Task: structure prediction
Amino acid sequence: MDNQNIKDDVIIENKELSIWEALIPVIALIIMLFYNVFFAFGDDALSGSNQFILLIGAAVAVLVGYFNKVSYKKMMEEVAENVKSTTGAILILLMVGALAGTWMISGVIPTMIYYGLQLLSPKIFLAACLVICAIISIATGSSWTTSATVGIALIGIGETLGISLGMTAGAVLSGAYFGDKMSPLSDTTNLAPAMAGAELFTHIRYMALTTIPTILIAFIIFIFIGFGLETTGTPDISDKLAAINASFNISPLLFLVPVLVIALIVKKTPPLVALFAGTLLGGLAAIIAQPDIVAKIGGGESLNFTSAYKGVMNAMTVNTSVETSSAELNDLFSGKGMKGMLGTIWLIICAMVFGGVMDAIGALSRISSALLSLSSSVFGLFASTVASCLALNVTASDQYLAIVVPGKMFAKAYEEKGLAPENLSRTLEDAGTVTSVLIPWNTCGAYQSGVLGVSVAEYFVYAIFNWLSPFTTLLYAALGIKIKQLQGKI
Result:
């Protein structure tokens, strides 16, 4: 979605609708989501129940519209336009799943992990944990997978060195969530611009303006902490390196694949084209560098045209995995293909239904007007967005909803202020994605705490990148740094 499409959207107003009527669907949605996540489904809420809750929220909005004389036809037309506007984002998500699959079986992702693990050194252990997890999370697009695999290994290594579990977990999560934010393979990185109306790579480039300084501050702090620590022993990762080497043909030449994709991105190639090219390059690299793996995934005993074709196609479309001798690494070397992105696509479509009805009845316009009256300054609008993301992370207990709900609610307000949509998408990530892990009852906080075996209270202060990110985005807003305007507006 480009800025022109956002700029040309018609803001639907309904002067008969009061602010309290406009807020009824939002309040109902938050209450239902809170119950659904906190009391009913827990970590499994994103498997489908949250999506249906969004549809129930849309139904509440339909009732509000009905009592305010908005026709059902008008509401459905706006829903159709809303869903249509996400076509590009949905195709990109599918291609991201395909790319992740081919990069896994080709050895591109394993090669990144193999060289990343060799950065360990006792005195710079914490800083190295951050860098390793950042590299792996960028490569996989998943903070959850990173912490559940390499993160667990690093926690164990840190413990043998006599380093606080909270410190190691904080470094792991700082790196993992930085990589998750900056990776085009990440579902939240695709979700935020889809909600705000921004374009994927524009969003990532704009997000780098706040994210890179924040991670550098975290890195420097971990360097200082590391040099002040008394460590014992030397980290042993030989078993993990051997496991990767035994299962994949590791070669620096495999870095050519991501380098070529990065070159396409730098040249401002359309995201879908760049990701499609990266997927095909990954498939070709897999056939050349990992013929045995491709043949096995393709159901053949040796590589031939049929097994190569089926192997690459399976990696692109469905669940695939490569087993190693290290149980800790096996989850890392599994891909879900395009199939793995269907849950996020489902969430986007249901969010667009809710947003479309809210727009049609004039609720988004009414809420935006109220927010603009309360937030007369640009900083006030950014601060309101940050507060909403934090509130959703606390009440709805899910990072996806902390992106979806504020994203739909604030899009009109940013547009009316003449602000480009990437301002909103960046703030959604800076305040919604990364802070979820700091809340014990949030799905992310509960998951990471359980996986790493470290309580949120123990790692909270050391998850420097996560709690510093919202302050960075607010500082930029307060000082007017890199606040991009909509084209044609000043």
